[in-house]
Model the fold of this input.
Amino acid sequence: MKLGIFVSHFRFNTDTYERLKAERLGVIFVQNGIYHATLRENGKSSPLLEKPAKFYVLKDDLETHGFTNSQVDSRVKVITYNDLVDVIFNEYEKLAWL
Amino acid sequence: MAITKLAFLVDKPPYKTETSRLALTHALSSQSVEIYLKDGDNVEPFLAFIGDGVLNCIKNQKALTIYDVTSLDMHIRNALLFGLNVYVCKEDIRKFGLTEDMIVMDADHPDGELKTQIVPYAEIEQAIESCDHILFF
Done:
């Protein structure tokens, strides 16, 4: 399975997130999910980034919250809405929204 | 004659819900409530951002440009311009790895003299203790 997961919350129950597995897994941080790509709470990056997956963050939402590309964790790729459409149609067969 | 002190405490991040925006609009509107009060009565509100709420205070939010909605840092600048004391918890800024230069500190207006006060939580706690009502957002 090729699965893309949208994460739009900063605080949420991660049980389901931790259980989800896929042959190809992508995590797309949008809305308040962008904090997982930017903040280092207590000096540590988000535990969500420990999952074996490709990570993306939506540039518009990053900038909406006052962050820039340079503040994004190196494991996360900054993408535009146009890139997001390509990711959805070309990279993953199924999508989930957490 | 009585002054009612109100604490507007924001501990939620911005945008995903309207909660923190409501705190700012309610705190601002409380500045005009004296027209409904008896002579000599008034309210004295302040805003404090703690926990995840400090994420509202990051400057240069582009919400207006990108999504055509007012950004939370714009509301904080307005609050400062209208004379509201704004406190931001120092420990929580550090906890998130943010720096003080990432925080909106003034109204960015010639008439705005107040500055955001980045203070230890103990100071916010003292301000809360001196309040008549606490409103959590």
